[in-house]
Amino acid sequence: MTATKHVVVVGGGVLGVSTAMHLQRDGATVVLVTAGALADGASGRSLSWLNSAGSRSAAYHALRVAGIDRYRTLFAADPAREWLRFDGALYWHPDRAVTGQRHRAEVAHAYHSRLLAPAAAAAAVPGLHPDAVPEVAVHNPGEGWVSLPHLIDHLAAEFTALGGRIVTGAGRASVTTAAGVATGVTTTGGQRYDAEAVVVACGAATPAVVAELGVSIPDASPLSMLVLTEPAETAMSAVLNTPRVALRPNPGGTFALDHHWYEDRITEAADGTCTIDESVVKELVAEASALLDGEVTLTAASWKLGRKPVPGDGEPVFGELPTVPGCFVAFTHSGATLGLIAGELLAGEIRTGEPHPMLAPFRPDRFRP
């Protein structure tokens, strides 16, 4: 370990809070600065399905599996937590060939994947309507889900107990530099926080923040919506990924719902606020209700809209900016699955100065001309 470092983390989502907590746990002195409240951005409207399903690069798969491992360790410490569960997931596509291709890709890297006929799928996933699966589905028994606002509260509690400081409602933050090296951040209110290292982990806003430093990170962040339902009586405990709705259980007997078919029906104003016609929300909730066995009718309790963080090439971006020493970034679509492991590995790099090999394929320098 190097000497104790003073670090400012920008962003109150799972990546920022996880990195801050791991740094503080390792002996650094950390201030976490966030524009609004904790978890009020993408982490507050994430389906947060814990998985490495489908087909992806070997390096990305390995990192996601490590991420799931850290959640299993957290789960083992208290299996009674209602905000972190491992009850499996089910996926199907209207084209049977696509479903089969996904299964074969998962088997190829030894991911726990079962190809099930409709009756077998209904037996494997209690609470699923027997007619929900048209032909065949992929069952992943080892997958799970997490409620990120609850996880963030859990991590923030440890962070502050260890002496970390959280500044909410700070507005937008900009990285300050001297001689090309990061020296801290300044908020829109004029507050300055000096540091030996800065972590930019502010979701879809990350590319804009580093652009001020002359760094380009391609951004493909789409508009998205997460719907939370009223409590419902059902045996459903698995995550469902279907052609018209993705569904996961949520604390308090509620459900979280999202998908992508309505992205072009979300309107974004110049100030970043988003709106959608309530009829779209009702349509999504109806699609979810149709998946559940019994006379279950879900009702929307609330919904949130905004940008879903997605790097331009779809791969995570983790590590130090090559042209701005001392400034680190954490920007990924898979913030939920990678939240714990990314915070741990990035904190280790900042504290020791030693790059971690599992983050090597995801460095921001891959975007340099």
UniProtKB/TrEMBL annotation:
InterPro entries named in the record: FAD-dep_OxRdtase (IPR006076), FAD/NAD-bd_sf (IPR036188)
Keyword annotations of the record: Oxidoreductase
Domain of life: Bacteria
Coiled coil: none
Short name of one Pfam family: DAO
Oxidoreductase is among the record's keywords: yes
SUPFAM superfamilies: FAD/NAD(P)-binding domain (SSF51905)
Gene3D superfamilies xrefs: D-Amino Acid Oxidase, subunit A, domain 2, FAD/NAD(P)-binding domain
Signal sequence residues: none
Record protein name field: Glycine/D-amino acid oxidase-like deaminating enzyme
All copies of domain FAD dependent oxidoreductase, residue ranges: 6-347
